[in-house]
Amino acid sequence: MILKKVILISLFLTLIFFLTSCNQSQKESVLKKEAKSEINKKEDIKNFSLSNKLYLLAPEFNSKDCESFGECDCCSSNYLFLDNENFICIDYCLEVDNFYSGKYKIENERVELKYNSTVVNKEYNWESESDTTSTQPKYFYKIEKCKPFQSTWIKFNCKEKICFKTTEKETDYASVDKTKTSESFLKELKKEGILQRLNIK
């Protein structure tokens, strides 16, 4: 009888030890996976890419949602990064939108943007509002030459999201534009003939 009890107690203790070991092993596995996930996230943020991304550059920044925004005329721009070196910039104004193209380079935590000398002006045709024959175009497109210039974006992280700020005369902020996709934006540019006017193939 005593031997039976000893055997039962031994089996019970062995079972408890086995369950505890399994539970500990599972916890360690979960912790390792979480740690690996955090490392991957940090690596993704460190080794960032802008290819096929659409950013909004504006003077205000909402740190809660990690979004840039602008509520004034001629103070916001879209930047479409076509690939790993080419970009298109659109400066928005009520009467005229300006389209630029250029090349960019990522160096450490900075993005160096160099703009080309060609600028396309998209000017609203006010006469089209009173045109009853529908012969007036809604917009006029003009190609002009300007002096090449450049700007610098400095990367900062906001809740694991990659954002940027400028270092020029005034500080602007750039975040991923959530109102539209890069694909639909590029499609609209092609439809308007902006890429052709900017000599982008």
Walk me through this protein's architecture:
The protein has 201 residues and is α+β, with helices and mostly antiparallel strands. It folds into two domains: 1-47; 53-197. It has three helices and eleven strands. It has helices spanning 2-46, 182-192, 194-197, and strands at 53-58, 60-62, 67-69, 76-81, 86-92, 96-107, 110-124, 139-145, 150-158, 161-166, 173-176. The protein has an eight-stranded antiparallel β-barrel. It has a two-stranded antiparallel sheet with strand order 2-3. A hairpin with a 4-residue loop joins strand 4 (76-81) and strand 5. The chain is globular and about 90 Å long. The chain starts with a helix and ends with a helix.
Could you estimate the helical fraction of the residues in percent?
Answer: 25-40%
| DSSP helical segment count | 3
Major beta-sheet overview: 8 strands, antiparallel, barrel
- Residue-averaged pLDDT, rounded? 83
| Topology, number of strands | 11
Radius of gyration: 28 Å
Distance between the termini: 91 Å
Strand order of the largest sheet: 1-4-5-6-7-9-10-11
Question: Segments where pLDDT lies below 50 for 5+ residues?
Answer: 35-45
Give the helix/strand class.
alpha+beta
User: SSE order, as H and E?
Assistant: HEEEEEEEEEEEHH
**Inertia-based shape:** globular
What is the total number of structural domains? 2
Beta-strand percentage? 35-45%
List the helices and strands and how they pair.
Layout: H1 2-46, E1 53-58, E2 60-62, E3 67-69, E4 76-81, E5 86-92, E6 96-107, E7 110-124, E8 139-145, E9 150-158, E10 161-166, E11 173-176, H2 182-192, H3 194-197
Antiparallel strand pairs: 1-4, 1-11, 2-3, 4-5, 5-6, 6-7, 7-8, 7-9, 9-10, 10-11
